[in-house]
Fold each of these.
Amino acid sequence: MKGFQMNSKITVVRKYKFESAHHLTCVPEGHPCRRLHGHSYKMWVHVTGPVENYMVMEYGDIDAIVDPIVEKYLDHHDLNLYIDEPTVEMIIQWVWDKLEPDLPGLCKIRIQETERAWVEIER
């Protein structure tokens, strides 16, 4: 391909979904988030690296790292069991800490909590 360098760094992104419940005690009495409630989260995991063998990383290899975390801790779970004050900011940091040791090239995660609200972490 014209202009393409095999050693170019490229980012691949994989999207995941999970349904979770949580409640927040860090908000005032009467706040709706203080009650147990749930969200249909969407999460994007970004991996950057050089193109080797015509790709950065196989999607299945990313899934092999992310899916067990989603299944064991996130999907249809009470996040308060694993994360103190599971605001989306705390959830994304927790997810990063779980994925980062086993996912070389992890560079960004985005978690969407509602249709109009999400957070991103980038390192």
Note: The longest strand covers residues 9-22.
Amino acid sequence: MKIQKIITLSLVISNLLCAERFIKEGEIVYDNKTKLSWQRNPSSERISVNNAKKYCTNLDYGGKNDWRLPNQYELVSLIDYKKYNPAISTELINIINGYYWSSSFDKRNTLYPYIVVSFQDGIDAGAGKDYNEYVLCVR
């Protein structure tokens, strides 16, 4: 009985903490867990990995100009594995179905060394430098 109460209490606390994890601040979403800020509206077009890096570096969004391309783990931190298609809260970030560039690189995969993340199903995959994908910048 005590174990059941402890489990129930921990689930309630966990849900409360998750409810306050993300805070919308205008066009920016702040993640209290990772201390990262995300743009609410990612790129509307697919672009190359080199242009994705430039896109974030040159981005002036929400009154901020210190954006960068997130790594694989930062992108994956946004995924809600209790959801599917999309596996992310669309109330927070206006996701377009497709893959998103990360700054992560897999040296072992010579054909598809660039890591991309899908918010549709929460998986990551490899991509070639000639691929065009969406961009979601972080700061």
Note: Helices lie at 2-19, 49-57, 72-76.
Amino acid sequence: MKKIFKKTVIFSLITVLMCEVAGAQKFNKKLQKYSESSVTEFGLISSDRIQLLNEIAGQLTVDLKKYKEVQPLFICTHNSRRSHMAQLWLQTASEFFGISSIKPYSGGTEATVFNKNAVEALKRAGFTFSQVDVEGQLGFIVSKGESGEERLMFSKKFDDKVNPKKNFFAIMVCSEADESCPLIPGADKRFSLPYDDPRYFDNTPSYEIKYDETCRLISREMFYIMSEVKKQLNTETETRKR
């Protein structure tokens, strides 16, 4: 228990200092508070998971040197819950840490709809959703409030015309898509970062709790990734000054 507490405190101090250096992006008050809280929870991430997140952070750092715009593509089966959450949270984290050239995307092995329970969980975290029609399909303009880029979000296949076709890497956020789609055409690399699907709790008394837990978990890990990217960029900048 003492080790866990110590680890959490150390991560909290490091990340708070990093946020101050980065000049954290201001969102609406609710989302800003949620974001600031997420960066204090890195001590809750397991060592095995940290290793996976560090690999993704390393790839983002490499791509920031190679491309004008970095385009990670999150993929799950239905592009309905986890991939949308990961896309929004990575973009939010990148803006939070002052790195504006990361533009995440998402898709599925099939297209369905942006699930209403996932939408509501993201609303509770502080995002604002405005319903729009996307070629006859339900979509949303998602806003962070006072500042930050708005994004059009709707369910689509990973190879949809709006998603990148080159100079991107794929992140598989569900085991089913990881197994059924071993090759992503055009992707420079492919990472497996699975999350449990909250849909199994749909129509149960605990569905809101489970969706909120998934939202928080993905937020925490996306903020960790971007904190590592920021740290690597700062280290390289300091090295060049010497």
Note: The longest strand covers residues 128-134.
Amino acid sequence: MIKLYTWCTQNARKISIMLEECGADYELIPVNLIKDEQKSAEFLKLNPNGKIPALLDTAPIDPEMLDTPVFETGSMLLYLAERYNCFLPKQANRRTTAINWLFWQCSGLGPTLGNFSHFASAMVEDKTKLNEYLVKTRSPQKEMYSIQRFSQEALRLFSVLNTQLEGRDYIAEEISIADFAAYPWIETVWSNFKMIAPAPMSKMNNIEAWLERMNAREGVKVGMEKLAYGKW
């Protein structure tokens, strides 16, 4: 069984989607970010960086992995792909493409959208429209430069992905961990960006079609719902 130590965030939903799509036997173990449980001595044994999610495989294929935690979502997706032999293409060029775009998401898309949300949420007067963790961690000041910087970078990254999806159903031709990494972040902010930047977003037709394909997958739906905001 996979034990997933987590909370309801975009990063965490990458992993719940993957587990559902793999048909894995797994248990969700809450790590309450509102109470700073990710900073506890117990959790730091799983991830010294003090960030969720993290996982333990209680019945690994390789016995040497027993009691060895896996953290950082890119590493977790790669581990699960190899563990369950799924969603990492066998064809060498597609495999490399999937890994390229996995790291693109982890190093670029995720941090950019996270920073955008951190600063842009300070503009929201009605706190009930924000999830509890964002209320706790958002910027204490309204900083237009930061909002503009990260919104422009997000639009640039959307354009990069939109180009990659030209003529493709999925990022690496076939569905892979690259799609599972990108989807929760883009799904969360998509409608907001369409409101604040309608002109450039109107050109993202390939991403729109990709989102529809992802939305139609049962594993994606369940994985998103398992860690929906306010679930715990």
Note: The chain has two domains: 2-84, 92-217.
